[in-house]
Design brief:
8-stranded mixed sheet; binds guanosine-5'-diphosphate; EC 3.6.5.4; alpha/beta
Amino acid sequence: MFNSLSDRLTATFKSLRGKGRLSEADIDGTVREIRRALLDADVAVPVVREFAAHVKERALGLEVSQSLNPGQQVVKIVNDELVRILGGETRRLNLAKTPPTVIMLAGLQGAGKTTLAGKLAKWLKAQGHTPLLVACDLQRPNAVKQLQINGQRAGVPVYAPHPGVSSEFESATGDPVAVARDGVAEARAKLHDVVIVDTAGRLGVDEEMMRQAADIRAAVNPDEVLFVIDAMIGQDAVNTAQAFNDGVNFTGVVLSKLDGDARGGAALSVASITGKPVMFASTGETLDDFEVFHPDRMASRILD
Ligand code: GDP
């Protein structure tokens, strides 16, 4: 991910090396190259436009620095702008003052929600939390089973009632909203301090799916709604993110499949376009392929 963007930016900066002072023409040329590199990496047009304008404005205002040459100063500006579009500071998970903390996952089918649910559960358990996974994806055949397998791997129980399975809060209706509500009640009764609610997605944004997600949100009043997005989906990422933001007003973004070789720029746009921070990254199929997302580290990785 980001390899090509990274190479392009590095090449652009190389041409500034050795310059004692940057002329306006140097800056224009550099900003043009940066703009092209971002567009070729699939960063959304409005994000590129704003990015380029900020870089240009700051580069024109550069004071002669004792410690950094102009090329290094431009790298620093680009680094700052990357951090900014990725959401700025690292955003920690918002934990409820009175447990359980409710975390709802939303996103398209195949985005990586069920996988993320297992990863998040394992990560939280390692920090001493006692999570409960709740299987509300009743749409996709196998989603409940997949969550149960992930729960088993993470050593975390899964609330997944279905006909024939008795539970104190038998929802067993095939109604995901009831399952979500009962899952949270189960967590409260059994003293789990975090509940992770996995929800159904569809292949594309769809009114019924969004209504169901919004209904689940209203029923369980989550502390966090994490929008999981496949970083490989390219320019569609922006429209999808906007639709989910309008539909469920998510609180944070999870970039999944960051281990892939997609250009990655669309993922860069999501935080900037929605104003919601990227909080976690999913980087593979096993439960340990998961990291807290640090905008500054990602920016350094891109500019490495
Ligand atoms: P859901 O429909 O949103 O619940 O998506 P799943 O969690 O079922 O994931 C869809 C597919 O993507 C599965 O085959 C996962 O193994 C795979 N997957 C999920 N996250 C990642 C990731 O970070 N990297 C890679 N390479 N594959 C992933």
